[in-house]
């Protein structure tokens, strides 16, 4: 019999609403408890998805097993009987303030999926996003009779989560699924009064076009996004991202002066971000992201000294929790160092990259690692290069097995 318990609220407050995010933190807590209690068996305690689903639905009579309770208490800092205790009557809770979007489950889900994606890679999280869209968001969209504020929020979340699914599919090597999700997100964005959601989708589509060597289309999409953004509220972070995508495309088209100008526009736009209110429908884009895009553009232009500076700046700004972003940045820096004729320095970056990215399930990252391995091969007479190539060969097999176990389903989603 289901009942209203505190567990879902506590999970949401700790930003672990998504199963994959919760699992990462639970495993770490289990290891810590095993060390604290001197009981190695506690490190193997886990929570199955079916159990998690029951807890989130309040379908639990008593308490979980004592070992599970011990880990949960360490993770959340509360006794298990409180975690699984009944919620207080609604009359005793504080009502959310008018216009407070923090009460929207869709917006909370967006943040949870973003966090899980950054830590684990799209292969782990894609199915959860699609499931949430199909079972939670879709009934809200098509069951609403009026376009009120709540339905606007639901449509906006649908756009963002559909675009997120597109990136996760691309990250897992399924560009066919990614393209379908992007097109669906673009259509959904037309139902919103806020044009920034549609412009944000175009930034993502431009990025995907770059990744799939459709350079002219990437430039056109970035410019279309800028044109759409000009008709709505100013969002400096999105404007900067669109200019950065345009610069990446222009660099691949060998339009050096135009690419440099687009990068300057991106920097000017991002400088205004501190004083502008954020948009809830816009993907995060910060100084580190711009530096990373600039490094890639400058590498394509052959401006190696400037590219190295931007790549190092991006890595300096990214903390260790952004494993996948750092991995892409490290690949770029290693490529720049090789182009500068510094294979030993490139190997140092490559070793750091392999050590930090073992748990990231990203076919896109695997492809970049394979390309880096090919770039390193001409330098195999250097001892450090031989050692790195050996490590890359060994880890490639592990990565293939991991990615194979997370293969996305065939057909449209």
Which topology of the largest domain does CATH recognise?
Serine Threonine Protein Phosphatase 5, Tetratricopeptide repeat
Biggest beta-sheet profile: none
- Provide the residue-averaged pLDDT: 84
Quick one: overall form?
globular
Give the fraction of residues assigned to helices: 55-70%
Radius of gyration: 23 Å
Structural class: mainly alpha
The CATH class assignment of the largest domain is Mainly Alpha
Strand content: under 5%
How many domains? 4
Which architecture of the largest domain does the CATH hierarchy give at level 2? Alpha Horseshoe
SSE run: HHHHHHHHHHHHHHHHHHH
Question: What order do the helices and strands come in, and which of them pair?
Answer:
Blueprint: H1 7-13, H2 19-37, H3 49-57, H4 66-76, H5 80-83, H6 105-120, H7 122-143, H8 149-171, H9 175-189, H10 196-211, H11 215-230, H12 236-252, H13 256-271, H14 287-301, H15 304-317, H16 323-339, H17 343-356, H18 363-376, H19 383-405
Helix pairs in contact: 2-4, 6-7, 6-8, 7-8, 8-9, 8-10, 9-10, 10-11, 10-12, 11-12, 12-13, 12-14, 13-14, 14-15, 14-16, 15-16, 16-17, 16-18, 17-19, 18-19
């Amino acid at each position: 019999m289901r009942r209203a318990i505190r567990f879902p609220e506590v999970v949401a407050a700790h930003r672990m609403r998504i199963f994959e995010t919760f699992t990462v933190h639970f495993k770490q807590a289990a290891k810590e408890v095993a060390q604290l209690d001197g009981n190695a068996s506690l490190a193997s305690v886990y929570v199955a998805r079916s159990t998690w689903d029951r807890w989130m639905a309040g379908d639990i009579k008593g308490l979980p097993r004592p070992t599970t309770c011990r880990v949960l208490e360490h993770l959340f800092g509360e006794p298990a009987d409180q975690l699984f205790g009944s919620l207080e009557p609604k009359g005793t809770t504080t009502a959310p303030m008018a216009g407070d979007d923090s009460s929207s489950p869709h917006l909370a889900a967006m943040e949870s999926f973003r966090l899980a994606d950054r830590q684990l890679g799209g292969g782990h999280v894609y199915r959860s996003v699609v499931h949430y869209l199909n079972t939670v968001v879709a009934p809200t969209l098509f069951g609403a009779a009026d376009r009120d504020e709540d339905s606007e929020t639901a449509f906006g979340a649908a756009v963002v989560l559909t675009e997120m699914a597109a990136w996760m599919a691309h990250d897992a090597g399924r560009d066919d699924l990614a393209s379908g999700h992007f097109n669906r997100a673009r259509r959904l964005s037309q139902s919103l009064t806020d044009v920034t959601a549609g412009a944000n989708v175009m930034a993502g589509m431009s990025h995907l076009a770059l990744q799939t060597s459709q350079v002219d289309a990437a430039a056109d999409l970035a410019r279309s996004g800028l044109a759409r953004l000009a008709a709505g509220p100013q969002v400096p972070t999105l404007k900067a991202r669109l200019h950065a995508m345009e610069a990446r495309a222009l660099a691949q088209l060998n339009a050096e002066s135009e690419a440099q100008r687009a990068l300057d526009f991106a920097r000017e736009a991002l400088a205004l971000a501190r004083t502008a209110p954020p948009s809830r429908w816009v993907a995060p884009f910060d100084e580190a992201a711009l530096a990373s895009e600039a490094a890639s553009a400058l590498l394509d232009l052959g401006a190696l000294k400037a590219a190295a500076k931007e790549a190092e700046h991006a890595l300096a700004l990214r903390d260790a929790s952004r494993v996948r972003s750092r991995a892409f940045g490290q690949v770029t820096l290693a490529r720049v160092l090789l182009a500068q004729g510094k294979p030993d320095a490139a190997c140092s970056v490559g070793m750091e990259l392999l050590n930090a990215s073992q748990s990231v399930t990203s076919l896109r990252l695997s492809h970049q690692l394979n390309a880096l391995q090919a770039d390193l091969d001409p330098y195999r007479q250097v001892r450090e290069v031989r050692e790195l190539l050996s490590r890359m060969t060994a880890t490639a097999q592990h990565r293939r097995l991991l990615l194979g176990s997370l293969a996305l389903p065939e057909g449209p989603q």
